Amino acid sequence: MIIDYHVHLERAGITRANAMRFVQQATQRGVCELAFTEHAFNFVELAPLLARPEYVARYGHGFQLADYIRMVRDVARELEDGGSQLKVRLGLEVDYVPETGQALRETLAELDLDVVLGSVHWIGQWGIDLGADTWEGRSRPRACRDYFLLAAEAAASGMFDAIGHPDLVKIYGFTTGEDCRSAMQEGGAELVRAAAESGTCLEVSSAGLRRPVREVYPGLELLRAARVAGIGITLASDAHEPDECGLGLTDAVAWARRAGYTEVTTFSRRVPAVRPLRPEGGETPIALARF
Ligand SMILES: [Zn+2]
Q1: SS3 for 87?
Q2: Which CATH class for the 2-289 domain?
Q3: Burial 141-178 (b: 16+ CB within 10 A, else e)
Q4: Contacts of 288 (CB under 8 A, 6+ apart)
Q5: Is the pLDDT of residue 287 over 50?
Q6: Quick one: which H or E segment has residue 265?
Q7: pLDDT digits (tens, 9 = 90+) for 9-52
Q8: CA of 268 to the centre of ligand 1 (A)
Q9: Rounded to the nearest whole angstrom, what is the distance from the C-alpha of residue 8 to the centroid of ligand 1?
Q10: Which of 159, 203, 205, 260 has the most crowded CB, counting CB atoms within 10 A?
Q11: Which pLDDT score is estimated for 286?
């Protein structure tokens, strides 16, 4: 089956009508399970856990968590009652920042969610995906090492069901050169070790295809190592608009298959279940040509 376990309502707003636009697009793209995973910092209750008030003041949406939970659960029930083939899951994407680790653990334990993604977007006060220009004057190998150190910490924490876009540091294509090779390899290996030990999944995300790097997250070498280590995967479009929902997942599935994966992991009330990856023959010549 194809799942999309990483989509954001934020720009559209947390309303039933918007959620349904995502649902319709997901259905058209053959998605069987759709998890809404709004950024935690978009909720007034959870924003302090990011510990970056200026960023939240500028980009946060100030949603109420209870509104989101109620709306997504209502949509899930409505679809189920209507006999829909599509299941909707309730999730969050949470930034992993080491300074709020314990508070985050306690908060997540209290929330009745289906799935929680842990993502690293921040190295200290630097948001690594906030613009290619923010990379100017920075050591790229150092960025790789710092990024994977945090990603491995996030995986080792056991707080998350899956690590979002596991090698996001490559987003602008700055870390694909020889100077970053060993940092990427060693960092990826460290992340795989941590995820295997804690039983945390890695996300296979088509979002990288829409970024300058033009590659699925994570890269094949990392994903193959994850497969060998017995780590489960989720699938993700990381849609921020309804049109992006389910986008590129055929490519993500083909990528996962190339790494040896035949199964995908789903979550209900944070309990994992392993399902066959479909479609079997989904790799179109066009999709493969892009790799
Ligand atoms: Zn996201």
Answers
A1: strand
A2: alpha beta
A3: bebbbbbbbbbbbbbbbebbbbbbbbbbbbbbebbeee
A4: 254
A5: no
A6: strand 263-268
A7: 988 789 999 999 999 999 999 999 999 999 999 999 999 999 99
A8: 19
A9: 7
A10: 205
A11: 35
The pLDDT value given to residue 80: 97
Q: Is the pTM of this model over 0.90?
A: yes
CA separation for the pair 182, 144 (Å, rounded): 9
**Interval between CA 39 and ligand 1 midpoint (Å):** 7
To which H or E segment does residue 153 belong? helix 140-157
CA 95–ligand 1 middle distance (angstroms)? 10
How many angstroms separate the CA atoms of 206 and 215, rounded?
Answer: 8
Q: How far is CA 15 from the centre of its chain?
A: 22
Burial class (CB in 10 A: 0-12, 13-18, 19+), 73: middle
Mean pLDDT of 96-106: 92
Give the residue among 13, 33, 10 at the shortest CA–CA distance from 23: 33
Query: Cα–Cα distance between 124 and 119 in angstroms, integer?
Result: 14
| Cα separation, 137 vs 93, whole angstroms | 30
Ligand 1: centre distance to CA 105 (Å): 20
Dihedral (CA of 187, 188, 190, 195) sign: positive
Report CA torsion sign: 67, 73, 76, 78. Answer: negative
Cα–ligand 1 centroid distance for 238 (angstroms): 5
- What lies within 8 Å, CB to CB, of 286 at 6+ separation is none
Distance in Å, CA 179 to ligand 1 centroid: 28
Q: Quickly list DSSP for 183-248.
A: HHHHHHHHHHHHHHHHT-EEEEEGGGGGSTT-SPBSPHHHHHHHHHTT--EEEE--BSSGGGTTTT
Tokens 């978009």, located at residue? 42
Smallest Cα–Cα separation from 34: which of 91, 108, 101? 91
In the structure, what pLDDT confidence band is assigned to residue 101 with cuts at 50, 70 and 90?
confident
Separation of 263 CA from ligand 1 center, angstroms? Answer: 22
